[in-house]
């Protein structure tokens, strides 16, 4: 799914570059098409980021926080190699999910900012209120920003899907570890309210 989305974004991005490089076209017309392609590619990324299941993410982060707190308070003795592996996987994937949640918001905010810059530049193109040289310079800057954002967004999506799967895999071992130290029970808040 991520590879297909990235291919579509790259196709839109390179279509914009194609329009830019066509000889014989008016620079303003060419840059207008290029800016439209950049907007399309970036907005496709935002749609992919928005498709991530917020409910599952919030449940995983909540469970991570509550289990982590229980483990820090109650697991003071030596653990087996298997338990240590589950703990490492649990902490790594849980921390990655928390980071993704923050980064997801940053990606959306950055996308909004770049979109507003692209819209202003499109207006300048429409009104021809910027010189051709400056237009080329500004468009190239925006392309770099969009490319960076798209790469960052795809990296974050990959982290989300991989970490969520690893988190789910580690849960059984973590829950067993908690039950051993809590009379066969999971912490009540988690057991009663959350399901992954």
Explain what the structure shows.
With 196 residues, the protein is an all-alpha fold. It is built from six helices and no strands. It has helices at residues 2-21, 27-50, 54-74, 81-127, 132-180, 188-193. α3 (54-74) packs antiparallel against α4 (81-127). The model is unreliable at 20-24 (pLDDT under 50).
Question: What's the topology here?
Answer:
Layout: H1 2-21, H2 27-50, H3 54-74, H4 81-127, H5 132-180, H6 188-193
Helix pairs in contact: 1-2, 1-5, 2-4, 2-5, 3-4, 3-5, 4-5
Gross morphology is: rod-shaped
**What is the distance, rounded to the nearest whole angstrom, between the alpha carbons of the first and last residues?**
21 Å
Distinct helical segment count = 6
Sketch the major β-sheet: none
Strand share of the residues?
Answer: under 5%
Average residue pLDDT: 86
Assembly category: single chain
* Class from helix and strand fractions: mainly alpha
Radius of gyration: 23 Å
Q: In total, how many beta strands?
A: 0
| Proportion of residues in helical segments | over 70%
Spans where pLDDT lies below 50 across 5 or more residues: 20-24
How are helices and strands ordered from N to C? HHHHHH
Quick synopsis:
The protein has 196 residues and is mostly helical.
Primary descriptors:
mainly alpha
């Amino acid at each position: 799914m991520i590879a297909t989305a990235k291919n579509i974004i790259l196709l839109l991005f390179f279509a914009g570059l194609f329009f830019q490089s066509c000889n014989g076209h008016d620079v303003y017309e060419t840059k207008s098409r290029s800016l439209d392609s950049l907007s399309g590619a970036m907005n496709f990324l935002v749609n992919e980021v928005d498709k991530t299941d917020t409910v599952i993410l919030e449940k995983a982060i909540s469970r991570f926080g509550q289990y982590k707190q229980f483990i820090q308070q109650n697991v003071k003795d030596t653990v087996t190699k298997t338990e240590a592996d589950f703990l490492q996987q649990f902490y790594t994937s849980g921390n990655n999910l928390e980071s993704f949640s923050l980064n997801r918001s940053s990606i959306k905010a950055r996308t909004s900012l770049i979109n507003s810059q692209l819209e202003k530049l499109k207006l300048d193109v429409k009104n021809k209120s910027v010189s051709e040289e400056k237009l080329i310079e500004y468009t190239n800057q925006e392309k770099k920003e969009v490319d960076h954002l798209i790469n960052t967004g795809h990296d974050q999506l990959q982290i989300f899907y991989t970490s969520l799967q690893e988190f789910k895999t580690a849960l059984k071992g973590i829950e067993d570890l908690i039950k051993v130290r809590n009379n066969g029970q999971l912490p009540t808040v988690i057991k009663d309210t959350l399901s992954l």
